[in-house]
Amino acid sequence: MIDGRPIFRATMAKNRVKILLRFCRFDNIATRDERLKEDKLAPVRDLWVMFLAQLRACYTPGGSLSVDGQLIPTRGRCNFRQYIPSKPGKYGLRIFWCYDSDTVYPLNGEVYLGRQSQAAGVGRNTSPICNLVKRLVQPWINTGRTITTGVQTSLVGTIRRNKKEIPQELQSDPYRPEQSSIFCFDRQITLVSYVPKKRDAMILLSTLHHDKAIDNEKKNKPEIILYYNEIKGGVDRMDQMVQTYSCKRKTKHWPMTFFFNMIVGAVAAFVVWTIKKSTMERKETSSSTVIFVTIGF
Q1: Which UniProt keywords apply (predicted)?
Q2: What distance in Å separates the CA atoms of residue 75 and residue 257, rounded to the nearest whole number?
Q3: Which terminal residue of the chain has fewer beta carbons within 10 Å of its beta carbon, N or C?
Q4: How much is the average pLDDT of 127-154?
Q5: Is the pTM of this model over 0.90?
């Protein structure tokens, strides 16, 4: 607080912030234990639902959407905390976001809770991740958008190599040359296997691409991979923007960690403001042009 931005110190005193955080709660503690039996996210569920409703109500996405995961670092006790060694924080709460690929506006989000009862919306006999992604993109199915699955909806994404449906020829092979590609086509589906380096293979599926287009200037990468790389990474960009003005505080209570991460709403507000400002500037420019022409005549 002392060496932070002046506007933060002017808004509220440090001790006042500590008092508010100490008594900050997001649900009725008297009924929490009962709700936790059906919903692991019960301590912040109501706040989360209202937050997502506002995100969807304030923005109409473009033609390209993406789904990616965000890890909120925390070491606090939580029975759905994830361990992802490739992430800087390694331990944390995992949120899957559906966002606009062009503006990084968060449209819909869902916390990965693992297995829980049917009442909370996650079945025990189906793939939790598969169902989660379907729920995230459901509002934009049949709208002509591309999601990075379906009628009037295109899909572009990576596939794990251990899937039994993938032909053996597309798997990693020490004899396959670097920067080589193998394509498979089945009606409207294209499958490509690209070798970025020896003994490795990237496998992607697309319903948007239907040929063997390759960019020779970019390590012979297929157009599918170039498209995928271009629209992915939005969550990383969102994290970077959030960290610039982070309000996070050290805490072992995961609901507070979750609440601090809701500053992504500031990113959404910034996107809306930027688009609104750009629209107004275009209108002003257009009006000025009309007046100039009129005066000229």
Answers
A1: Membrane, Transmembrane, Transmembrane helix
A2: 10
A3: C
A4: 70
A5: no
